[in-house]
Amino acid sequence: MKSFILPLATVVTMVVIAGGAGAQAPAGVGTEEFGLTPRQLVTSIEKVEARISRCMRAQGFQYIAVDYMTVRKGMSSDKNLPGVSEEEFIGRYGFGVSTMYTGKPPQLAEGYSPGKVGLGERNVRIFHSLLPTDRVAYNHALFGENIGATFAVALETENFSRTGGCTRNAIEQVFKPEQLNASYYNPKDALINKDRRMKAALRYYRREMRKAGFDYDHPDQVEPDFRDRLAVLTRGGTILVEQMTPEQLSALEKLQDYERRVAAKNYNLQEEVFDPVEAKIEEEMYARKVK
Predict the structure, then answer these.
(1) Residues paired with residue 84 on neighbouring β-strands, in sequence order
(2) In which domain, by residue range, is 272 found?
(3) 132-159 as b/e, with b when 16 or more CB fall inside 10 Å?
(4) Residues whose CB falls within 8 Å of the CB of residue 34, separated by 6 or more in sequence, listed in order
(5) Co-location of 266 and 139 in the same domain
(6) Which of 96, 130, 285, 288 is 20 to 30 Å apart from 223, CA to CA?
(7) pLDDT tens-digit profile of 256-284?
(8) Is residue 160 situated within a structural domain?
(9) Same structural domain, 141 and 263
(10) Is 130 exposed, middle or buried (0-12, 13-18, 19+ CB in 10 A)?
């Protein structure tokens, strides 16, 4: 029998139509990060920032609590550069994980830095006013051992496991214990994954990724994998690029090349298959019947 390959647009149409309407989201499961509602997200950000400020003050440092819009701007800066589309960004920098790594504190970043944006301009100025030795102590108090784990970045990636210092202390007071684990999964996404249309889309995604030589079952697995790989290579982000040995630099370059290739394939499959199906299911989940 002669085999043939359906166009991606046909695959998406078949998957969306085949499933029918899915179940509505249970009460309490929102559309934002960690399954929060928009109002809960605003409140949580404000509470965390206020607690970070108090914690830093107790340790002898000034930190101005950042407002919701600034943190949100940091979150939306992920894979975003002025004048560069997301597709172009992915092609040049992958996810911006290993390709943008310098090992420097976010406040000293030049150009792309969601972490720096999320800290707010006033806190960046405070950091720059400090002596070099005090900068190290300041960031240790604010971030702990991993200076790249800012609140905005951790919130956007839905992974608080690398946070430390006053940032972690504040998060622990606001978010639930289970949300602090690296294994925590957004309940909204978990519900979407149970829909048979998404299961069909994920089978297609898994098959196409393996054809390309990449061992991933879900788009949500990809970027965290690169963050884990980079953390191993850089000892949790504590090694400056200019301090790397030739072997470390070679390993970083290989990781960067791999990240670009995986990100490009992942992006294409998300845009053409995964995202349309996810959007349809989410629309149905949060639809409200008009009486």
Answers:
(1) 81
(2) 185-285
(3) eeebeebbebbbbebbbbbbbbbbbbbb
(4) 155, 158, 175, 179, 184, 186
(5) no
(6) 285
(7) 999 999 999 999 999 999 999 999 999 99
(8) yes
(9) no
(10) middle
Residue 234 has pLDDT above 60, yes or no: yes
Q: What is the mean pLDDT of residues 204-226?
A: 96
How many structural domains does the chain have? 2
- Please write the tens of the pLDDT for every residue from 167-209: 999 999 999 999 998 889 999 999 999 999 999 999 999 999 9
- Domain final position from 163, 180, 197: 180
Q: Is residue 19 part of a domain?
A: no
Taking CB atoms within 8 Å and a gap of at least 24, the contacts of 200-208 are 200/15, 200/18, 200/19, 200/277, 201/12, 201/15, 201/273, 201/274, 201/277, 201/278, 202/274, 204/11, 204/15, 204/269, 204/273, 205/269, 205/273, 205/274, 208/265, 208/269
Chain-centroid distance of CA 246 in Å reads: 30
